[in-house]
Amino acid sequence: MLTFDDIITARTAIADATITTPVVPATRLSMQLGLDLFLKLENLQHTNAFKARGALAKLLSLTEAERATGVIACSAGNHAQGVAYHATRLGIRSVIVMPQGTPFNKIKRTQDFGARVELRGSTFEEAMEATHEMIATEGLVLIHPFDDPVVVAGQGTVACEMLEQQPDLDVIVVPIGGGGLIAGIATAAKAIKQEVQVIGAQALLFDAVKAAVEGGDTHFAGASLAEGIAVKEPSEANVAIIRDKVDRIESVTEDEIEAAVFDLLSHEKLVAEGAAGAGLAVIRKLAGELQGKKVGLVVCGGNIDSRILSTLILRGLVRDGRIARLTFEIDDTPGQLAKISRMIGEAGANVVEVIHQRMFQSVALKQAELEVVIEARDSLHVDEIVAALAAEGFKLTTA
Known about the structure:
Alpha-Beta Plaits; six-stranded mixed β-sheet; four-stranded parallel β-sheet; 16 helices; 14 strands; about 45% helix
């Protein structure tokens, strides 16, 4: 089983080539939640994720013969970039196997770090099969994303830094996928401060570790925003450590993860990926139990697709009532749109989009359907605008 000495060894090894990322207070979220929340910003690490730690620890443990042979990893995300970056920096040839259909931006970022990318299979499992085939034919050394004690020791260095930077933490919340990050963190944290509580956060759609530890059923279904922790088969060695050292595991829904990523961006101005959102969502879920405590959250990465992030922001604004869609049934006569726009502007809101149509609708022939998307201060402001428009005789609904 992984030991604290292993983590100290890894920390010494990687110290010169990794960033001691800051722990910062999340002031606004702390006020909302009724606790003292501190964020460990691993989204500022090399390649914008904690994975660079474990990847480097493993690469530094290789023999000269293994370095000369080269390394291979199977990953479509943070591990791929961590291995590619540090392998190239150390002069080691690297091959990264990704499933076909991996977004081009992830492929390009990995190639930009100097790796040879091979697209194999349609799923992670099929890509891993291809990885083992290439190991057999090319003799490459596998750098596994979580099922390797040296990699896990590298990830555990996060806890060493956290408890030096904020030694009075009562709780540390850690996202769980294959279990490597939390296994390393729990091992280090419990050695440094036995009474600290370690809580795992999983996406409900990929709750394999929670099911393994608690003996329940999994809920595998569909794609998760927390793709970095979307793991169906965690490491058995990591699960054993989690059983021994992690205090509890909670799972959260996709809606809760999405809202948490938006909150990190809007309240703390941090770009975080879905896995980190799962951690904040668990803190929200347990806020009643954590009142007054000092809680540390590992913001494990910031590699969220820009297209997904832009959609998430818009959906968050809708959820907060700052963007609303007003649907009107109006007489098809000149001046109606101008009057509506003027009233919205006078009320202090912005018109974002207008759709004015006569063909595809259920209203009468001499009427038209008008959709106006507006940006307001909040949901109460929207209600005021709707009331004012209704008072002028407009028939409308909101969404």
